[in-house]
Amino acid sequence: MSLIETRGVWLTTTDSKVLRSKQRIASAMDFLAEAGFNVVFPVVWNKGVTLYPSQTMQRNFGVEIDPNFVGRNPLAEVVSEARRVGLKVIPWFEYGFVSSYNLNGGMLLQKKPEWAARDRSGKLLKKNGFEWLNAFDLQVQEFLLNLVLEVVNNYDVDGIQGDDRLPAFPCEGGYDEATIARYHQQFDQHPPQNPQDRQWLQWRADTLTNFLARLYQEVKAVNPNLLVSMSPNIYDWGFKEYLQDSPTWLNRGLVDMIHPQIYRRDFLSYQSIVNRLVTEQFTDATLSKLAPGILMKLGSYFISPEYLAQAIECNRKRGINGEVFFFYEGLRENNDALAKVLQNGPYAKSASFPTLSDLSRGGADNSKPLSIWQKAESFFRTIF
């Protein structure tokens, strides 16, 4: 029986040069295919600009594409080069409802100040340096939806991906006049001053979930085979801090694949969260949709080869057939050391990317001997 697994990696513009030329993209796709990967998640929306020529952006803001890529179309290049080597492509809308990072709203809110999210003091909503668009505003929702729809309508992609910013919204937000009025109309009172009041959290999370339902329906209307993939914060921290009600997304069938960001820097922490997700959040019917996000590199941090192999082994033992790594450059450090660990160990045997029916029927039976782990162990002993 052929192996079916999600073996993915995010392609970023931050700390990465992979998208800077078509040649680099072609080389990266060759490299990933050789290392055993089968899907890439290239960023297409960050820092308030797109990485493809966008009529939605041109119409609203007069900026068609990220100024660094004028004259090119990185998304089209990734699709073309990935197809050449048999990789799936799921564009990643990294910034979601974020407007800017430490730029007081940046170009988006300079041109459309009415789109700004507000905290309870009426100030522009800012959390961890990120300034936010109002995710409850219907025009803002329409704008994000149009970005997604122009990608699925114009490119040969396999789906789309949201993350910890789509659909997401800091719990400190929702105090703009229109949202307050809507809440007041429904409950005959103002929203609580405590942003983490449980009922206020749930009401706003439900609003985001309903947006996701619309996004899911509209993507499927373009092509029912397109995958809607999400990489949220871990529940329930993600619910309390960013209104991401991922168990409800799963229960309502609004995601085809989900990649919770289990970005822990030691294996025991990772294992603990996987165990909790499998026992508390996922059922036999939804486990096939799970392929955790694993932190491979961030700043000066690199995952150790031991932790890398242990995390994949942990996933398979818990019935999780896949993972997605943040991010590509981690594979290239130290003379491609981590890519070699995968290529000679857990990814030594090629695997097909799951189809929609694999993801929705409880997954494939990937029972197999664990001799690949022994291979991985002996291999990384020789290179580290």
From TrEMBL:
User: Which top-level group of life is the source organism from?
Assistant: Bacteria
Domain called Glycosyl hydrolase-like: residue spans? 6-277
Q: Does the keyword Amino-acid biosynthesis apply?
A: no
- InterPro entries in the cross-refs: Divisome_Glycosyl_Hydrolase, GH, GHL10
Q: Does the keyword Signal apply?
A: yes
Going by the UniProt record, its keywords in alphabetical order are: Signal
Pfam families from the UniProt entry: GHL10
What is this protein called in UniProt?
A: Family 10 glycosylhydrolase
Species, as recorded: Mojavia pulchra JT2-VF2
User: Mind giving the lineage of the organism this protein is from?
Assistant: Bacteria, Bacillati, Cyanobacteriota, Cyanophyceae, Nostocales
